[in-house]
Design goal:
single chain; mainly beta; Immunoglobulin-like; four-stranded antiparallel sheet
């Protein structure tokens, strides 16, 4: 009786495992839908630059500019490298920068993106990006570094 019961349980377990097995794959000719969407009016331009200013013992360098056109707006990503050559900690963040465009208006960072900001220890380097949204037709900008009330550095950049 025990053997019969053991056989019945084994057969039942075998059917259960087969029923819960992997479903067969769909034929390879079925197209899978892409989960990412591309906006039709997206264009991306990359511009390598090395623009450096030294302010209060900190070397501020704009290394790369990425331009993306989305819905008739130019989205800029400015990649910075900041090196503290002083003997004290220096706090620097993307909010210390602004853009003055050729239309005469001033633009602040895009707060919907993750912008850089941190305290830089002596003889250390911080890298990060600051994001801005400006009009699509903008051809030149001034990137202004103003951590407090006084402007401390500015870069004139022609956007390609």
């Amino acid at each position: 009786m025990k053997k019969l019961m053991l056989c019945a349980v084994s057969v039942l377990a075998m059917f259960t495992l087969v029923a819960c097995g992997v479903m067969p794959e769909e034929p390879a000719n079925n197209k899978q839908k892409d989960s990412t969407k591309v906006v039709k009016d997206d264009t991306v331009k990359n511009q390598e630059v090395k623009l450096t200013k030294k302010v209060r013992g900190t070397e501020l360098t704009i290394e790369h500019i990425k331009q993306t056109i989305i819905k008739k707006k130019k989205h800029l990503e400015l990649q910075f490298s900041l090196t503290n050559h002083s003997s004290t900690d220096q706090g620097v963040g993307a909010n210390d920068f602004r853009i003055e465009a050729d239309d005469g208006k001033t633009y602040r960072i895009d707060g919907t993106k993750v912008n850089f900001g941190d305290v830089i220890a002596p003889h250390e380097t911080l890298t990060g990006s600051a994001y801005f949204v400006i009009p699509e037709k903008t051809k030149s900008i001034n990137v202004v570094y103003q951590p407090e009330e006084k402007m401390e550095a500015a870069w004139k950049i022609n956007l390609e």
